[in-house]
Specification:
- By secondary structure, the protein is an alpha/beta fold.
- The chain folds into two domains: 185 residues, L-asparaginase, N-terminal domain (Rossmann fold); 116 residues, Rossmann fold.
- The chain is built from eight helices and 16 strands.
- It has an eight-stranded mixed β-sheet with strand order 4-1-5-6-7-8-11-12, sandwiched between helices. A four-stranded parallel β-sheet has the order 13-14-15-16, with helices on both faces. Strands 2-3 form a two-stranded antiparallel sheet.
- It is elongated and about 65 Å long.
- Bound molecules: asparagine.
- It catalyses: L-asparagine + H2O = L-aspartate + NH4(+).
- GO terms for molecular function: asparaginase activity.
């Protein structure tokens, strides 16, 4: 019988509403009390590694989770892993694990938009779907997956798109890779392999800034050039910045701080297309790294992992550049 390990980390899926309707964490995870529809079909082992709202998640805790999953696969004969997580930073934890775990067993992350005792609570439903996805042979060797609202998404591209709607998790540009129906988990897209980069420590000082019309160098000038190890910028459109940002960016590059550029657009990739002042062509010539296909928060995770693995220069650029081939 397959053994599925569930690692609970907290989030709304583990919370309840009080009489005023405010959502609060619980001492005891309500998912642990649910009737076990899996009895006789699979062995479910549950562990509460954290009980945190996901805005309290940190890269250090992501690394702890990664190490726990490695032990489960290598020493405990586990056939699949489900991680329950708050939805606010779920995509960052999922992508961190995707980049760092050399696992073959399915690793499936899920959460909920409505807490355990609210009308239309989606927690138990998503949890059940995540367990069946982790149980599925077809989910092996697919990297880290996110199962929410009847869909399976890759950790690489999924993002939270709505503050409250249960269909909040979407994969812009590329779409979900699977569908969970009443009796099956169906996959209908092949994935492009990516380099797995195991790390045993994390660097500090990797930041994310968003560009806007009229942005100047002031935020870049305020950056502590000693403490900062890397910066991601969500740039405009196809990958452009206002000309007034250029002196501040040049100062950071002179201090050998890697700058990674993604687009603040919801769909598409950032590229060096425009050849005007502050356009992508000039930014690339300056030495800014273009990251194609990731959103800002994921590009930050990738830069953090790459730097923590000791990558620099051209090696770092190749690593960060390609989320798609
Ligand atoms: N739906 C949720 O889980 C949101 C919650 N604030 C969290 O991320 O912990």
């Amino acid at each position: 019988m397959k053994k599925i390990l569930v690692l609970h980390t907290g989030g709304t899926i583990a919370m309840s509403a009080d009489q005023q309707g405010n959502i609060l964490p619980n001492q005891h995870n309500p998912l642990l009390d649910t009737d076990n529809e899996f009895a006789g079909k699979l062995e479910l082992i549950s562990e509460e590694i954290f009980n945190l709202p996901s805005p309290h998640m940190t890269p250090e805790r992501m690394l702890e989770l990664c190490n726990r999953i490695l032990i489960a696969e290598n020493e405990e004969d586990i056939d699949g892993i489900v991680v329950t997580h708050g939805t606010d930073t779920l995509e960052e934890t999922a992508y961190f694990l995707d980049l760092t775990l050399p696992t073959h067993v399915p690793v499936v992350i899920t959460g909920a938009m409505r807490s355990s005792n609210e009308i239309g609570s989606d927690g138990l439903y998503n949890f059940r779907n995540a367990v069946w996805t982790a149980y599925s042979d077809a989910a092996r060797d697919k990297g880290v997956l996110v199962a929410m609202n009847d869909e399976v998404h890759t950790a690489r591209f999924v993002t939270k798109t709505h503050t409250t709607n249960v269909s909040t998790f979407r994969t812009p540009t590329f779409g979900p890779i699977g569908l969970i129906s009443k009796h099956h988990v169906h996959f209908y897209q092949e994935l492009i392999n990516q380099e797995v980069c195991h790390i045993d420590h994390l660097v500090d000082g990797v930041y994310l800034l968003k560009a806007y019309a009229g942005m100047t160098s002031s935020l870049f000038e305020a950056i502590d050039t000693t403490a900062t190890k890397g910066l991601v910028i969500e740039a405009l459109g196809a990958g452009n910045l206002p000309p007034e940002t250029l002196p501040g960016l040049q100062k950071l590059l002179d201090h050998k701080i890697p700058i990674v550029l993604v687009s603040r657009c919801f769909n598409g990739v950032a590229e060096d297309v425009y050849d005007y002042q502050g356009g992508g062509v000039e930014l690339k010539k300056m030495g800014i790294i273009f990251c194609r296909g990731l959103n800002g928060q994921k590009a930050r995770i990738k830069l953090l992992v790459g730097l923590s693995a000791g990558k620099k220069g051209a090696e770092l650029e190749t690593y960060v550049n390609n989320a798609v081939s």
